Every structure is written in C-alpha cells, then in structure tokens.
Amino acid sequence: MFRSIRNCSRLVRIALILARYNVLFFWRGEATADKGRRLAQALHALGPTFIKLGQALSTRADLVGQEVALELAQLQDRLPPFASTIARAIVASGLGRPIEEMFATFENEPAAAASIAQVHFATLKDGKEVAVKILRPHIGEAFARDIELFYWIADMAQRFKPEWRRFRLREVAHTFEEMIRFELDLRYEGAAATELKANLKNDQGFYVPEIYWDYTSHEVLTAERIRGIPIGDVAALKAAGHDTAKLVDLAAVGFFRQVFRDGFFHADLHPGNLFVLPDGNIAAVDFGIMGRLDKQTRIYLAQILRDFLAEDYQNLAKIHIEAGLVPPHTSENNFALAVMAIAKPIIGRSLNEISVARLLGQLFTTAEAFEMEVQPHLLLLQKNMMIAEGVGRMLNPNVNMWMVAQPLVEEWVTQNFNARARIKHHVRETMALARMLPTLIRQAESALERVNSGGIRLHPETESSMQAARARMQRNWLIFAWAALIVFALAINHRIF
C-alpha cells in the first residue's frame, strides 16, 4: 500500500512536468516530430533516469511512432556538472590513493557532464594523457527508485490495458534496468571497450582508446584521451583536409564489422561520441551502451538487408516466418505484400535518400497486424543504424553508407549461409548436445535416487517405465555419440572446420 501511495505521488509530479511541456496527452492523435521534441524536453526536465528512458524509447518506434523515435534519438544527455571537490573525492576513494599520487595533472573543470557521470581530463605520472570518467554521487539510489516506478507503471498498464501485453512492457523495464546496471559500474564499460578493441585490433579505420585498469574501479574509468575533430563538425574536418566521403566508407565498414562479423557493437554512435583523428581514422568514446547479436540473428539481419535492397519481398517474408518472428500460420504472400507496401515508397528514391533504419523501423511497426514479437536487441540496433545514417548524411549527403556496406553484407551472408557453413553449424550444435546428454542422464538418475531414498515409492508401473526410459536414453546416447563422431570425422575430411 505504501509503495502504491509513493508511486502515485511521484506520478503526480511527473504528470505536472509533462503538462508543463504540453505532452500530458501525448498518446492522443498522430505521433509528430513536434510531440517528440516536447517529450524530449520533458524527459530532460525529469532528470537522469528519464533521459536514459527517452534514449531507450527511441528504439521503440512501435510504441511511440517513427517521428517521435527520431526526435528522442537526438535527446542530449547533458546535465550540470557536480563540484570538482566531489569528483576528486570519488576518484581518491574509488582508486584507494590520493589524486596527487596517481596523476601529474587533474583538470578541475569537467570536459563533459551527463546523466550518469562526468569526465575530467588528466595526465598520468608517466605523461600519458587520459580522460577520467566519474560516476555522479548517489546516482545508484536515484535510478533504483525510478526503475521501481517503471515496473509499477508497466504492471498497472498491462492490468488495465491487456492488449498492451504484446509490447512486453515489463520486459522493456527489465531491459532498461539491465542497461542502467551496466552503466552504473564503470568496470563493465572498461571491459566492453577492451573487448571491442580486441575485435578490431587488426582492422584499419576505426580506433578504440586504451583502458588503464590500474586507474579504474566501480566509480572511476580511466581511458586514453582522444584528440581529434568531432565528426559532426564538417567544416573543421574539411578545413583539416579530411575526405568526408572516405569517412562515410570507414564508418560503414566499421559498423559492418562490429555488427555482422563480431556480433558486438557500440550502440551509441551519435556525433558526440565519434572523433576523426589526425591520421584520418575514426575514434569512438563512451562504451556504456553496447549491443550483442548471436550468429543466427546476424544471418537473419543480413538477409533482411540484402532482400530489402534487392527488393526480394517474398524471400524476406519467408525469412521472418522461418525465424519464428511471426507466427507459422502467417500468410507468406500477405506478409510479402505488407513489406512491399513499406519498402516501395522508399526504395524508389535515389540511393542517397534511402534510409535502411527507417525501413527496419517501419517493418517492426507491422508487429500488431502480424503478431510479430518485438526483438529488443534488434530495436537497439535499428536505433543505432538511424543515428549512423544521420552521421553519414552529415558527412556526405550524396552517399548512402549502407550501399557501401552492401557488398560486404552479401559476401558475409554467402560465407555463413552456404551448405558448408550450415553443416558446420549443425555439427557444432550436435557436438554441444552430445556433451550435454550424459549430464542429463546423471540428473535423471540422481532425481530417481532422491525420490526413492526419501521414502517416497513410485507406483511399480511408473518406476518400471522410468527404468526402461533411462535404459533407452543410455542406448540412444551411445547411438547418438557414434553418429556425432561419424559426422565430425566427415566434417574433418571435407575440411569444414
């Protein structure tokens, strides 16, 4: 009861702020860009958690509409900085040493201040220039209170509007909570940057700064300082002699490698997080929001992009049904027509006007008509593609970055979806299952022994049936193991691995 009263009082405060920005009745009428701008302003006024919520909602065009999602994607995560004395105290406490012992210099004025942390430039004792990211004080408690409210709102919404269950609002709240938990421990961000750097170590064109782990903790992240021109400052880039068309190519190839080749990508590539280095490479900062895609999802996504660009709507519909994204009873022909209706008005434009991110966004909005399940990881990717497209057009409005990446996508699909690749995939799945079966047998035997030793006797027919099933399982395991070995031997012989 107390929780409900507290949440209701907080809802009143939220409603007053929404009313101030004239978005209290946001859901009435068409979702326009103007509504999106006003909603972004209101969320910014509500504070750190709501700024992050707005960024998360920018991936949910199915909830807020495409125009609003585009506006929320531009939501600036900026807040007034906290005092440098507090920042220094957090660094000293988090790293367990006085500032003077670790840094030769430490700038009092922050270089940037956002909802979760702020950044101060510093110099290590050995002369290395670094950027020190510091969590805001008490930010964890503030987020915990707000996330509790989001769960409560999700439960209330689904109770009074059962048809909203398809939006999986509680799952959205959980995904948001996981994202925030990741960002509230700066060691995770350091680990993400380290993994991304390792993935790209042999590639040219996209640079990830070094993380200094001796100066990193839960509250503090120390990374190599990046000195470059912000990618959004096109005039400065041209004045410095950089080829903006080449930068679009580098961005497209870097994005392709992260998403398709590695399945681990920077999910917040807005212009403020990208810099062009003196050597012409692109450097990224701020690894608090990352995306991860498994191999099957990457194949599915690559096929979607390939079929969209090739206008093969029938095959695109077939992929959705086979992937289980729409129910099996869905008419392939009807779904193909729906996809064509979305794509044709856009595909018919010149190459530089095509927005693949908008195509994907509109595809996801067909969820209601075809009972398509919302895929949070794909929505995060779609939002990132939208931002990347904006960066690409800013650099060179005559170039479409996805057309640059299209040959790479097609080659990757061919390499990963031909007969040999499918056999290799199935062999690995078979071997994984083979490794699991003995454990499953032991677990079944252990469960049966616990039942008997506990004084609970099964009916004789039931016990006899279970013993027979166990014998069949063991026999089938032997057959399965031999089959797996034969398949594995054939795979080796044909050099599949």
Please describe what this structure looks like.
- The protein has helices spanning 2-20, 33-46, 48-57, 61-64, 66-72, 84-95, 99-102, 139-160, 169-183, 186-199, 234-239, 244-262, 295-310, 313-322, 332-347, 356-364, 367-370, 376-395, 401-417, 419-453, 460-493, and strands spanning 103-106, 112-113, 117-124, 129-135, 206-207, 220-224, 229-230, 264-266, 274-276, 282-284, 290-292.
- The chain has 497 residues and is α+β, with helices and mostly antiparallel strands.
- The strands form three sheets. Strands 1, 2, 3, 4 and 6 form a five-stranded antiparallel β-sheet that branches. Strands 5-10-9-7 form a four-stranded mixed β-sheet.
- Helix 1 (2-20) crosses helix 2.
- The longest helix has 35 residues, at 419-453.
- Residues 423-427 and 477-497 have low confidence and may be disordered.
The level of helicity is 55-70%
Main pleated sheet:
5 strands, antiparallel
> What's the pLDDT, averaged over the residues?
78
pLDDT under 50 segments (min length 5)? 423-427, 477-497
Tell me what portion of residues adopts beta-strand conformation.
5-15%
Terminal Cα span: 60 Å
Q: How many alpha or pi helices?
A: 21
Rounded to an integer in angstroms, the radius of gyration calculated over CA atoms is 26 Å
* Secondary structure tally: strands: 11
Label the overall shape.
globular
Please identify the structural class as seen in this structure. alpha+beta
